[in-house]
């Protein structure tokens, strides 16, 4: 009888978990999610366009409120740290510190960039679902007559999508930042703590 009760309880718990996972799937399509994030961010930037050049902190605040909540910082951290994200090279505390620092510097970096291009518009490229766990949605931003393709690679976080990597004009930012971090580790003589403290990712795609 006890065995039957345990089995029944186990099945009930498993059913609840499975059902929870099923109903926790993102309700938005990948392009709908990216469009929502882009529209919200651009609307805020346009509304405060006149203030951004004189107030860099405002741009960072806008990015923090309208983009940061949708970034999969853990996945982005693993991409950027590369082999240093494994237990063989780093501790959980070091990875957590890297993620914290990396997130803050990204906000500063993107804030500065968006402050310069706050009046840009975009078009959404046609999207075809492939069943991939990490779908990619591409927007073509228009600025001063130039088309700038920005591709967002997403990750399924249950109830919503999150952005795990970004590609700008063919430049994979995750890979670019990974190379920069590896160089930072080398400059600091392999001292990971110093490298994490001193790492400043540069998203300027003109610096290849």
From TrEMBL:
The keyword Metal-binding does not apply. It comes from the Bacteria. Keywords: Signal. Residues 1-24 form the signal peptide. InterPro entries: MlaC/ttg2D (IPR008869), Tgt2/MlaC_sf (IPR042245). This is ABC transporter substrate-binding protein. It comes from Acinetobacter wanghuae.
